[in-house]
Amino acid sequence: QTAEVGVIGMAVMGSNLARNMARKGFRVAIYNRTASRTDEVIAGHGNEGTFLPFHDLANFVASLERPRRVVMMVKAGCGTDAVIKEITPLLQPGDVLVDGGNAYFGDTRRREEEIRPTGIHYVGTGISGGEVGALEGPSIMPGGSKESYEIIGPVLEKISAHVDGEPCCAWMGTDGAGHFVKMVHNGIEYADMQFIGEAHSLLRAAGLTNAEAADAFESWNHGDLNSYLVEITSRVLRAKDPRNPDTDLLDVIRDEAGMKGTGTWTVQTALELGVDVSTISEAVFARSVSSAVPLRTVGQHVLAGPEHTITVEDRQTFLTDVRDALWSAKVVAYAQGLDEIRTAAAEYNWEVDMGQIASIWRDGCIIRARLLQRIRDEYAAGDLVSLLEAPSVKAELARCQQAWRRVVACAVEAGVPVPGFSSALGYYDQVRAPRLNAALTQGLRDLFGAHTYRRVDDEGSWHLNWSGDGREVRAN
Ligand code: NDP
Q1: Residue 83 · residue 108 · CB < 8 Å
Q2: Is the CB of 33 within 6 Å of ligand 1?
């Protein structure tokens, strides 16, 4: 018997993805470096579909129908390089090798370029949804050649999540585009979680208990803020400490957030591309500050400021304001993330379709949200310089912006840190400002370093002879 697709790497992600494929009717060859893991998958789930288990990579490859479809789900970095080295001599031109791990898009571009001369299609693919998504239907973001999508696309589309019959999987563009889009997805996820955390801090500062805050998130989840992250927030807020049922679990979890690196990549890449992703960088830095225990200990003891309490006259009005601020900030994070993708697409010659990206994030992934349907529809109606200019988005922002300002202002007054909400608002005000402070920056740069300036009423670059006769000269 031959296999239609093969999966390498039987840790949690690979085994769940293979099971998903088998459940959808594909004959799946499986292989893992440590053979016992392969045996465990068969022992535990062999009855879920047609699996062809292998302990030898050459036999695994030989079992696959041509053009072969191989999905690697191994440890990103050295694991991926090791498998590529071992498998490429066994594959043939026209075969497709998918990397479904969380690779850095620059590594994917390098690997694709190295493998391309062999005629093997290397397909860097972002997969979101964690282990449950892998099993039940993730959001899938494949890159690589267009030709490769014709071969691997049907399998990936079938195992992905679906919305109204449409798969949450689409070709993202050549070489590293898939992993790039997944990276930005994770960056938006960071920002989204930071905003949710800030909203919760505001509610607590205004005197709500965790259970009351959970009620607020639950009601927001019925409206425009409907999303997986808002939904699970109320679950986390309601959870009790299993060691002490009188205590909220949240109050015994250390206030220090870790990270694995995709948020950092999103920010580093944005810096290189010259794109403002301030909401994502604030979220990354907020996690860094949370873990900087000595700094926070010193700060708590020596820095003066208000007592972190917000006096609320009307609780319902305050809740509505926080909701509007949360929605607005979230939109800014999406606008910034999509702007990073758009800029990268121009830089790397990717044919990305913004509406399609929003479309495949509608389900299966961690940032799935009602907002994505709106983003998809807005991009389907016409190309946008920024999501913020989309008709329904700008109208809603216009309605929410006063509340957003009130929330940031009262947080600042009370000393409640809201770096995400305020940087999102700062971005909104920067992009709508007729003039920023850049003219003065240019003047200063020309004075101290002869960096020149450009004029509003003339072409070219100019330099003022600041220390001499005060005349203006044209620069080269
Ligand atoms: P891990 O990242 O823990 O990787 C373990 C797997 O990699 C095992 O199958 C292991 O084989 C294999 N492996 C490691 N090094 C090598 C090597 N040198 N040669 C061959 N195989 C090797 O597994 P996960 O299932 O958690 O994740 C798989 C990939 O999916 C990763 O890239 C991860 O970043 C990505 N991912 C994970 C998500 C998650 O929620 N966990 C979500 C989305 C993507 P062995 O058993 O022999 O050690």
Answers
A1: no
A2: yes
